[in-house]
Amino acid sequence: MNPEATPAHPVFCTIVPPHVLDQLSRLDDADRSGRALRTLEHDALQRTRRRITTVRGLGAPTGTPSDKPNRTIYDAKHQETLPGKKVHSEDDKPSKDASVNRAHAGLGATFELYLKVYGRRSIDDSGLPLNATVHYGENYDNAFWDGQRMVFGDGDNDLFLDFTIPVDVIGHELTHGVTQHTANLDYFGQSGALNESMSDVFGALIKQYALGQNASQADWLIGAGLLGPNVTGEALRSMKAPGTAYDDDVLGKDPQPATMDNYVKTSRDNGGVHINSGIPNHAFYLLATDLGGNAWERAGKIWYAALTGGELDKDAQFADFSRLTVATARTLYGDGEEVQSLLKAWSQVGLPTD
Questions:
Q1: Is-above-0.70 flag for pTM?
Q2: Is 196 a catalytic site residue?
Q3: Which of 99, 181, 225, 338 has fewest C-beta within 10 Å?
């Protein structure tokens, strides 16, 4: 398959999965359920808008390839009109607004990993400007990539904090843009879970690269620091131990499986894209920690080459991806420890490689 021949298909992805918000919307607590319901309704409307944009088609990349990011931050001032008021440009001094500074830094950390490690110039590899909007909506409990920009809610300071806090959340959402411009994975079922997993993998790598952490030092959590003071949990997801990120009376229990034995069949969440992504997530964790060193190097390069190499079909299933990564590893490294570690990782999560 040649991804260049397929128009970019922008999915609407939120970092807080619909199944979590759906759980909250059913609470007896009117404040919490009301916030969740408003967020769900907002996100449903945004998904509809993304589909309309996809049908109409997207223009060609307009950026200029550069080794420097071009970041612009906007302030929605608690409204839901995008992009909001422009408040910070690439060369401006740090803002007095911490959310603006965190968004600027997170966009930069994402740009840097893709450029320095993988030679990719921005999200589309053509210098796409990186735009973000902060302070979106009132108590909006989410962040999303809408195909053109990052958008951050402030959270409610109860269950969720400011969504600019975790750099991996920013990296996760922007990586949906990378997938959009490369393999363009369908956002449903296993291909959708692969789409989500790609964002978790590179979100984690962006955080590790920014912090200078090797695979053994990293926490392998997605969204650490995001959960509010009244939540029992560490993060939204764990790549090291899927299903253990939170276990809370309000949020419920993290439903992610780590292996195919516990694969979740559901019609919700686009066929469980945020749930079953735990399986390829865990395979990557197993590979990276078995290889040791910096996860963005050998393990990350295998995943990046598989995503961007033109062989990953839009409707790829988990087994298609596991086989492709093995072929990719052999191309990159021969039949060495990289391939052996990869075979072992996929076997541990119950996926074939031949």
A1: yes
A2: no
A3: 225
Q: What is the pLDDT of residues 69-117, one digit of tens each?
A: 999 999 999 999 999 999 999 999 999 999 999 999 999 999 999 999 9
Q: Which of 181, 274, 282, 338 is catalytic?
A: 274
CA 87/CA 98 separation, integer angstroms: 12
340 or 25, which is more confident?
340
Q: Which of 173, 196, 234, 338 is catalytic?
A: 173
- Burial of residue 314 (CB within 10 Å: 0-12, 13-18, 19+) is middle
What is the residue-wise DSSP string for 209-246?
HHHT--TTT---EESTTTB-TT--BS-SEESSSTT-SB
Q: Are strands 252-253 and 150-152 parallel, antiparallel or unpaired?
A: unpaired
Q: Is 13 left (phi over 0), alpha (psi -120 to 50) or beta?
A: beta
- CA dist., res. 242 & res. 272, Å (int): 14
Known catalytic membership, residue 297: no
